Amino acid sequence: MNIYLQCFLIAVLGAALKIWKKFINARNDAGKFNIEFNASVWARMDWPTWPGSLIAIGICMFLVDVLLAYKPWMAIAIKPIFVTVGWTGADLVISLLGTSSTWIKHIADVKTTIGDKARGTLNRPTPLPQTTEDKQRILTMIEQAKIDPDA
């Protein structure tokens, strides 16, 4: 199989792995904040990730011959390098064009603001627990929130 085709396929798999991780993270974040998650809505929100990743991979494909002409010994490492090319290309595109995480965080912020207003703690951030008593107090607040959602 042609080295260019192999590098392309390996990079696509690297990008797919990163996009899959992004999907799992978005689904988990939505679950943490009690936000309804829909895979097809996620795909529509982050659709630029795939073509953007392919463009990033394509750019690097044009550099294979330059790299191998400059450092011929790199031929043995070119395939693992392209896993990284796919992963980082997808990561860059996700950070530039992905919108689902932004929306999940925005909705979570709105929900926590509503809760803070209801509890009168809007302008006081919740501190991290420093003592055992702090931990117990926060755990009690969390438990009460589960039992009484209108608290």
Describe what you observe in this structure.
The protein is mainly alpha-helical. The protein has one domain (3-120). Helices cover 75% and strands 0% of the residues. It contains 7 helices and no strands. Helix 1 (3-32) packs antiparallel against helix 3 (49-61), helix 1 packs across helix 5 and helix 3 runs antiparallel to helix 5. The N and C termini lie far apart (64 Å). The mean pLDDT is 83.
Question: What brief labels describe this structure?
Answer:
151 residues, 7 helices, mainly alpha
Averaged pLDDT: 83
- The low-confidence runs, each spanning 5 or more residues with pLDDT under 50, are none
The number of helical segments is 7
Main sheet?
none
Summarize the structure.
75% of the residues lie in helices and 0% in strands. The protein contains seven helices and no strands.
Task: Summarize the helices and strands and which ones pair or pack.
Elements: H1 3-32, H2 39-45, H3 49-61, H4 64-70, H5 78-97, H6 100-119, H7 132-147
Helix pairs in contact: 1-3, 1-5, 3-5
